[in-house]
Amino acid sequence: MKKEPTARASGSSEGTTAAAKKTPAKKAAGKTAAKTAAAKTETSPAKRTAAKKAKKAAPAGGPAAPVKKAPLAKKPLVVPKKATAAVKAAPAKTVVKPAANESRTALVRRARRINRELAEVYPYAHPELDFENPFQLVVATVLSAQTTDLRVNQTTPALFAKYPTPEDLAAANPEEVEEILRPTGFFRAKTKSVIGLSKALAEDFGGEVPGRLEDLVKLPGVGRKTAFVVLGNAFGRPGITVDTHFQRLVRRWRWTEETDPDKIEAAVGALFPKSDWTDLSHHVIWHGRRICHARKPACGACPIAPLCPAYGEGETDPEKAKKLLKYEKGGLPGQRLKPPQAYLDAGGRPAPPLGAG
Hints:
Blueprint: H1 3-57, H2 64-88, H3 104-121, H4 134-143, H5 149-162, H6 166-170, H7 174-181, H8 187-204, H9 213-216, H10 224-234, H11 244-252, H12 261-269, H13 277-290, H14 318-322
Helix pairs in contact: 4-10, 7-8, 11-13
Region (Disordered): 1-68, 328-357
Family: Belongs to the Nth/MutY family.
InterPro entries: DNA_glycosylase, Endonuclease-III-like_CS2, Endonuclease3_FeS-loop_motif, Endouclease-III_FeS-bd_BS, HhH-GPD_domain, HhH_base_excis_C, HhH_motif, Nth
């Protein structure tokens, strides 16, 4: 009976010993795991600190590895450079073409703003034909068909010196007139027109140029375009001159899609007050002759590029576009501007050509 307690005691002590042995082992294992985790956690900061210290302590002529790592710190600087390059290309994107479904109100506002801009660019715009009275103007305008105003200005002094009045030109020898007008091209047809209109003026209007549209268009060689040139510049009566430049530009600007000159005149006239018609004609024609050419517009030198639906049809590079600027008065027909005339002014607008009056 005494052995049983001993056995129990012995068994109890063995269990206790085993438990005691297991508990420290588990504790030790737990501590080891915690230390390992802590070591792992502390490894990266330690390495970072060591790396920082190594970088600071490294001499200027250190190993190649730190030198290779140096550009890595500059990588973020590459992004701003790329962003800057993208911004430089942005100005071309700032030209917003008017929507195809532009409202009537938006069209009127845009058209009038274009005219205001052109008025600032060409404040000196005027008829580029030389004349001293309505008779000289109507004859010069008829002669300007299919040629330049400069060529007409070179021809008319001799014509008016020999035939100063409608009566004189009406009685002229056609062959002599043809010889004078030969440089203008189509000289036979033009001779017939100027002699015919001179006879009409002498016989029907007492040798005076009429100041009414319905009378002017009855003269040989005189259409609505010529009549409005005369009315606007000789009599101060507003009119729209729909020549080839005017037709080309108003269609490019989407002021109208009409192709008939009379319909173009009506459509454009409805966008502006009547008092603006004559100056508007000068602004558009001057712009068409100098910048917005038929074959290759100088888009990069155009002051109304942000308002133009046709932007991009011509040269958009500013430097190349400046070489396309043309100037007629005082130079050869179609002569291109040369520096310094070709430079734009401080506001980015085409500077008035030298000699412009």
